[in-house]
Known about the structure:
binds beta-D-glucopyranose, eight-stranded parallel barrel, alpha/beta, TIM Barrel, single chain
Amino acid sequence: MSKSFELPKDFLLGSATAATQIEGGDIYNNWYAWSLIGKVGNGESSITGADHYRRYAEDIELLSQLHQECYRMSIEWSRIEPKQGEWSKEGVEHYRDEFQRLIKAGIKPLVTLHHFSCPQWFQEKGGWLSENAVEDFIRFVDFSVKSFGDLVSEWCTINEPNVFANDSYMDGKYPPGSHGDIAAYMKVTKRLVIAHLKSYKLIHKIRKEHGFAGETKVGFAHHLAIFEPFDSHPLAKLGRFLSDYLFHEIHMKGFVEGKLCFPLGFGYPEGKGIFCDFIGINYYSRHLFKASYNPGNLFATPMVDPSISDSEKNDLGWEIYPEGLYKVCHRAWDKYKLPIYITENGIPDAKDEKREKYIVDHLYQIKLLLDEGVKVERYYHWSFLDNLEWNDGYGPRFGLVEVDYTTMKRKPRLSALRYAEICRTKRIENRST
Ligand code: BGC
């Protein structure tokens, strides 16, 4: 039996990227320094990217041809403030032109201010562990919103604060490469919460004071995964609970409600209120938690369900689990009743064999949510272009559009053409499962 369904005409469909992963050419950010010491997969470097910094006009035309209605991108802090306190006119002009072109093409920009990277000068001061971290970041936010706020009304303050702090201070994958430093994880998480709360207020204030047109919308992009106990072992359940609390929950409370929870602290540092106009959800996969007697692992080790076949995994071995999108959205909605944007959802699939079905199956979960009155308003597929997958280098192919890294030629994959039709018609024909 074929199943067809439609999404509402005002539901926006598009795609997402991040500056460090696609732009190339910037020597002032900390991922370039990280590449230089061989920390990116296969000795690769962020200096390459997909050459988007020079090809952005061509890429916007491609976005338009693919009927993308909205586009989530980030601005590279180090291009705006390459040295502390020195603001780059060139950087500002570049991004202004990029936003203008997007708007002219009828594509709504959602702009991320912090997507895992920072200027190397900020990293050298200690990054988010430095005493002035929040202050430094807020200065950048202030400058950016004053420089771009007439063109950009929608802002995402911080991308995946949980993944960022975990991979930088617990797993040693992102700069500064610390391992198991739980104190740093907490300290940085608390600072990211405070930076978001202050940014939320500041962005609204600046856009209002300047009379910038368009409704100001500010949120963050939270990485929410499905965590389940592997079996009924009490430690599996305890470990799942602790990881869920420390990886998902304390961020929700902080970023949305403005509340610092144990062990971050107590109380409301910026007052009580709601500090998100939308909740951005980045959803990819499910993890099972297997009992472990190691308290350093929070009593359980995350793993991929051993019973699933290769056809249910992506090129990086992550489980493809569309129902999880329904679950994470429902949980956020039930608690906060705030509009939800799927700020990321995608698949590394070099052969492009699974992407179309992946998109359709996840959109179907959104349709189920909409039918139940859950206000999901946007879907940004990750990613528009093939890009630098952080430590994994350029191997994983997340792009709707394939990039040939020798010639930098772009080629929309078949799944991109199918997705473009969905964006145009809001209609999904013949869902096969
Ligand atoms: C990040 C992206 C990344 C994607 C796939 C998210 O964690 O925000 O930068 O490329 O997942 O791993």
